[in-house]
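Q: I have 196 residues here and want to know how they pack in 3D. Can you give me a structure?
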Amino acid sequence: SALLHSFRDSTQRLAFALLALAVLLFAFDSAHAHGYKAGALEIGHPWARMTPPGAKVGGAYLSIENTGTTPDRLVSVTVAPDIAGRAEIHEMSVTDGVMKMQMLPDGVAIPAGGKVALAPGGYHLMLQDLKQPLKEGASFKGTLTFEKAGTVAVDFKVEGMAGPKGAAPQAGDPHAGHDMSTMPAGNMPAGTAPSN
């Protein structure tokens, strides 16, 4: 009888511990899961890099996976007016040692069955005319507009200079560690950054 009572207490403690662990894991997963869905499109972790005071531009990033059989296109992005005057879809590339950043007026194609990363050093969102510094730990609202999937409201989380935890650093990212307030449009030599 004492052995049975001890076994029952141990089983109840174990069950309670497992339940508590499951609740914690769910809460952790929910807190760190940051994705959205629009039809066949899966939008992963929209984020922006923190900016220093006085910066007039910033970068924002996310991934888009098209699990469908029809291509789509990200055609525009907006953010809350208290964050930036406008958001543009840009591409950065290096050709013959010259870094080129350009706005993509037609947006970014999302191929059927494909994935596109808007990440430092490649496609990205340029937040123009920042109204306030982007502070690590904050978040702000935005809207992604797709040619076929329509609009999707998202929250951009502001991350530190290194980006989201576990993200690999991207070489040649002009948004990393620099005040972008004086960045010229067009070409700039690779490895250089605008200065204040």
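Q: Anything worth noting?
A: Residues 184 and 194 are 8 Å apart (CA to CA). The two ends are 79 Å apart (CA to CA).
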